[in-house]
Amino acid sequence: MLLKLSLTGLKGRWRDYAVLFSGLMIAAGIFYMFQSMASNDDFLSSNSPVAMTAIIFQLGSVLLAIITLVYILYANSFLMSMRQKDYAMFMMLGAKQRKIALLIFIETFIIGLLATILGSAIGVGLSSIVSKLLTNQLDIQVTNFSVFSSKALLITLVFFTILFLLAATINASSIVKKPILSLLKANETPTASRRRPVILSLEAVGGIVLLGIGYYMMDNIAKIGLLALIIALITIVLGSYFVFHSVMIFVLNLLKRSDNLRLKKLNNFTLSQLSFRIQDYTKMLSMVSIIFALALGALTVGLGFHNEIPKMTEQTSTYDLLLNNAQDADQKQVENLNPTLDVSYQLKEDKNTIYFNQEQFDEEPLNAIYYDTTPKKTTYSGKELANDEAKMDSLRTLLLPEQQEKELSMVPEDKFRSLSQQTSSLQVVQVKDFMAQKDRIQKIVTENIKQNPSLAQGQFAMNQKYDIYNLYNETFSGLEFMGFFLGIAFLTMLASCLMFKILSGAASDVVRYDMLNKIGTRMSLLKKSIRKEIAVLFLAPGILGAIHVLFGLKMFTSLLTEPYAGIWLPFLIFFVLYLLYYFLTIWLYTDIVLKKKESS
Q1: Where residue 137 falls among pLDDT bands split at 50, 70, 90?
Q2: Which residue in 23, 215, 306, 572 has the fewest CB atoms around it within 10 Å?
Q3: In this predicted model, what pLDDT tens digit does every residue of 569-588 receive, in sequence order?
Q4: What is the pLDDT, as a whole number, of residue 242?
Q5: For the purposes of burial, counting CB atoms within 10 Å of the CB of 19, is it exposed (0-12), middle (13-18) or buried (19 or more)?
Q6: Residue 215: how many CA atoms within 13 Å on its side-chain side?
Q7: Cα separation of 35 and 50, whole Å?
């Protein structure tokens, strides 16, 4: 009988549980996806270009595990707020506390377990999609990758099972210890919001000062080091808390003093609703702003790393294509690249020395890179190369491995022609757009290695621009995908946490909206008031979180040449997803507080 009543209660709140359930599934699915990428040993061992992404995805799993723990705690709180009155009624009907505790434990654990299993199934699909995106991004063909990983599934099930066992135990022990009256009246207990103006002012100033310190530390992390990151983390968390705990109350009180605003339609009711609940929402709004910053930051930095790939490749490469022993190369393929520069430097070599025609380098100087504070490109004439061994090393890096060990010599054209050794050539090519031509260049590079097998050995495989591009692409693509999926996972969880918090207080608002309805308030005004109230609760942490990100990107100036480039894209993605959660929360909240009124 008790189980039947419980199932009836669950059925009656299926919309709320659907939101909770979907959030848990997404968390489990993304966690599985990260694990399947990082723990697929056969895939990683047989595809060396993606081996570095294992560490990246493991790091993502750790971060996701931490935020998932926070998310489940809030989701668990929402679950209890929905069901505690039902449990109180069961106790009033004579149900034993032991039975209630067992029922709560089973409900919580079953919901979590089902969400984990279905989420893992979603994760298999995500793994398939992401693996294709990742390998396409890395421009490689992969083998031995299976979207289903028993190891990843086991890790996911064990992790989430432990979490839900913990949550179920906490739920069961907390509910049975509370008096029945406390359970029945829990959502009707107000939170005091009156505080002394002096304390309010001190908190507001303190919050702004703490945020300023945190932003300064992030801007100077390169100078101060790890200590700056620790200080920034502490001050920004505390600053966010004080801002919501004081500044929002100050602003709401200020708005309520304006008769033109306060007395217009239901604005006074809406402002009073926010003032009444703001202290209870302080911790939640602070947490949401921090996670919002982490989520948006992860996505922004991830896309930023993607933009860095061609930039860093360009900074560390002098030519788009090198052809050693170029007389063996297919020149028709080179012509199809429509090169903007195509030069062949002649060379002759004996046992110890390689000779170059100096006049050729005077006519077409060698492109080189020198390092000041940052890599800078320059050119060296034949005369400069002949008189400076350090500059000659720029030419040495373009040669075959066995040639790099020899002495290099620039000689006049007549002397070069008098040498009896066979003439070979080093062909250097530049194109208008390397990224657009990289597939064609890759084919020519492959042929060049076949003609010169020593190029495939160790560090000598990295003298081509295409190989350097692959190295950066391997590293940064993993960071890009980790940032993208972490960002989406964080956003889903933070928006769900905020939504659960708002919905958990909806039951106590029914009486207030019922009273307004009875005195003749139009339904359109009630719905508009709901939209405004929820908009403030969504917008406030979103704005502060965005500010955190704008300052936080300063920390990545050492890794990203332009951390703010293309920032509109991740902001747009977040705005759309955040807006969807806003509308979903309005729909669910309205259904709770106005459902009875619309039907009457």
Answers
A1: low
A2: 572
A3: 888 888 888 898 899 888 88
A4: 87
A5: buried
A6: 17
A7: 15
DSSP assignment, residue 48? G
Residue matched to tokens 């917008």: 539
Kindly state the tokens that stand for 290. 């921090």
C-alpha angle 25-31-35 in degrees, rounded to nearest 5: 140
What average pLDDT does the chain have?
A: 78
Distance CA 211, CA 548 (A): 9
The full DSSP string for 155-170 is HHHHHHHHHHHHHHHH
Bridge partners of 322, per DSSP, are 428
CA 525 vs. chain centroid, Å, equals 39
Predicted local distance difference test score (pLDDT) of residue 79:
65
- Rounded to the nearest angstrom, the gap between the alpha carbon of residue 114 and the centroid of all alpha carbons in its chain is 27
pLDDT digits (tens, 9 = 90+) for 290-342: 878 878 887 788 777 777 788 888 888 889 998 887 766 678 888 888 999 99
Distances (CA, A) of 363 to 344, 345, 431: 12, 11, 20
DSSP assignment, residue 148? -
Q: How many residues does the chain have?
A: 600
Query: Within 10 A of 324 (CB to CB), how many other CB atoms are there?
Result: 23
Do 326 and 332 meet the contact criterion of CB atoms below 8 Å apart? Answer: no
Which amino acid makes up residue 538?
A: F
Q: Exposure of 580 by Cβ count < 10 A (0-12 exposed, 13-18 middle, 19+ buried)?
A: exposed
Q: Do residues 501 and 342 lie in contact, with contact meaning Cβ atoms separated by under 8 Å?
A: no
β-bridge pairing 375-380 and 353-357: unpaired
Residue 341, C-beta contacts closer than 8 angstroms, at least 6 positions apart: 319, 428, 429, 430
In the sheet that 423-430 helps form, which strands lie side by side, from edge to edge? 321-324, 423-430, 341-349, 353-357, 407-411
The vertex-546 CA angle with 541 and 552, nearest 5°, equals 125
Largest distance between two CA atoms of the chain: 111
The pLDDT tens digits of the residues spanning 244-268 come to 888 777 788 788 777 777 777 787 8
What is the value of pTM for the model shown?
Answer: 0.71
Residue range 70-117, pLDDT digits in tens: 777 766 666 666 666 666 776 776 767 777 777 777 777 777 788 888
- Tell me the CA distances in angstroms from 33 to 18, 42, 124, 305, 485, one per residue in order: 22, 16, 7, 21, 9
Q: From the centroid of its chain, how far is CA 64? A: 10
Separation of alpha carbons 477 and 302, rounded Å: 8
pLDDT beyond 70 at 595: no
pLDDT at 340: 92
Q: Which residue has the tokens 């009896």?
A: 420
Query: Is residue 123 very low, low, confident or very high in pLDDT (cuts 50, 70, 90)?
Result: confident
